[in-house]
Amino acid sequence: MLLPLTLLAALTAAPSSAAPPVQLTKVYYDSPGVDRRSNTSLNGEYVTIRNTTRKPIDLEHWAIKDMTGYTYTFGPDAVLGPGKQLTLRTGQGSDTPSTAYWGRRAYVWNNDKDIAYLRDSDGRLIDSCSYNSSRADYRNCL
Questions:
Q1: Which residues are CB-neighbours of 89 under 8 A, at least 6 positions away?
Q2: Which of 35, 74, 77, 129 matches a 20 to 30 Å C-alpha distance to 136?
Q3: Whole-prediction pTM
């Protein structure tokens, strides 16, 4: 028995997955220049996330983590506006609505391979971005 094409297409179509409310968009894992742990060099290493919704998202207790277990947890003032991006820099600085600082004095992201994980306040994995290359300095995650 032959099935009509529309029914056949519906039966074989891959399930669609909606974009997560917050996405990892970029991991800049090999900061420019020589790695000497200067604050400028540490802040050249960063992760960018984006709110994909039309509503602000309260990031309090959300976390960004690497494979080793280094974890940054967002505080009570972290709100990501609709369609907005936020860059988490490894070093020290003053937080703004578009930039947060981990406050570390050592690098987080390995220069050859690692995985960035984004978890919500309940610990659920929202998004991840992996890279495995020493030929590039960053990975666009989208």
A1: 42, 43, 45, 46, 99, 100, 101, 102
A2: 74
A3: 0.86
Spatial CA neighbour of 107 closest among 23, 26, 46: 46
Give the Cα separation of 22 and 52 in Å (integer).
6
Q: Which residues contact 21 (CB under 8 A, 6 or more apart)?
A: 51, 52, 53, 57, 126
For the chain, domains (ranges, CATH) are 19-140 (2.60.40.1260)
List pLDDT tens digits, range 15-35.
446 789 999 999 999 999 888
Name the phi and psi angles at 11, rounded to 5: -75, -30
**Token pair of 19 as six digits:** 């974009």
Tell me which DSSP letter residue 5 carries. Answer: H
